[in-house]
Write a structure and sequence with these properties.
Layout lengths: L1 H31 L2 E2 L4 E4 L1 H5 L14 E9 L7 E10 L15 E9 L2 E9 L5 E9 L3 E4 L7 E2 L1 E4 L3 E4 L5 E7 L7 E7 L8 E7 L3 E7 L9
Parallel strand pairs: 3-15
Antiparallel strand pairs: 1-2, 2-10, 3-4, 4-5, 5-6, 6-7, 7-8, 7-9, 11-12, 12-13, 13-14, 14-15
């Protein structure tokens, strides 16, 4: 009987190991296959923003996610800061110009702390369906702010290396791809508000598969950690 149990246990562990290895390989292949070397295009899913697992489907979906990202501020020798994300949740009404969402908007809640204290932001897919956009933000120095959903804070869908897109939101924004498919399939892009001549208006961000937000670099003179 003991020998039979040992055989069953060995079989179970072998299957579990194979399943885990297969699952890990699928995840790796999914991210590798997101980039097409012939067209020089990459599909960027919502999961790169959230840090959640991605099934490899080239579809933009707000799947359930509860993650904690740990990002560094480039040029500063200090421990990484945490950003927590959860959702999706639903707004009580649609107060934006996002047409695809209907009467209520699904969104992710993202929270972190800066020198001013706790920051809470709501993110969803923008109206043009090629980016994640902030539709609500609350922090000490600003109070509550609502946005029209026409801008973008993170690229989604198919993009090319060096591509630049402009968004005619209330505060015009621009996204430029700096490194489309870097080491470990990480993405680095530049986000600019207006002419980018003020603090918090010209930043580089890096996001990596299964991690989310990993690095922040301000292009503004006299760098700031605000996002």
């Amino acid at each position: 009987m003991k020998q039979q149990l040992n055989v069953l246990l060995f079989s179970f562990l072998s299957i579990s190991t194979l399943t885990s290895t297969h699952s890990s390989a699928e995840q790796t292949n999914s991210w590798d296959n997101a980039y097409n070397a012939e067209t020089k295009k990459r599909f960027i899913p919502v999961e790169l923003f959230t840090g959640a697992n991605w099934d490899g489907q080239h579809q933009l979906k707000l799947n359930e996610a509860t993650t904690t990202a740990c990002y560094i501020i480039v040029g500063r020798n200090q421990p990484c800061d945490q950003v927590k994300l959860s959702g999706p949740f639903l707004t009580e009404r649609n107060e934006t110009q996002i047409e695809w969402a209907g009467d209520k908007i699904p969104y992710y809640l993202r929270t972190f702390r800066n020198r001013g204290g706790q920051v809470e932001s709501h993110f969803t897919i923008n109206n043009s369906k090629d980016g994640m956009v902030r539709i609500f933000d609350m922090r000490k120095q600003w109070g509550e702010r609502k946005y029209d959903g026409l801008g973008s804070k993170f690229p989604l869908g198919y993009w090319k290396e060096g591509e630049v897109r402009n968004y005619p939101s209330k505060r015009p924004t621009r996204i430029e791809i700096i490194e489309l498919n870097g080491p470990d399939n990480c993405l680095t892009f530049r986000w600019i508000v207006g002419d980018g001549q003020k603090r918090n208006q010209d930043n580089n961000y890096t996001f990596c598969p299964n991690l989310g937000f990993t690095a922040y670099d301000s292009n503004y003179r006299g760098k700031t950690r605000k996002r």
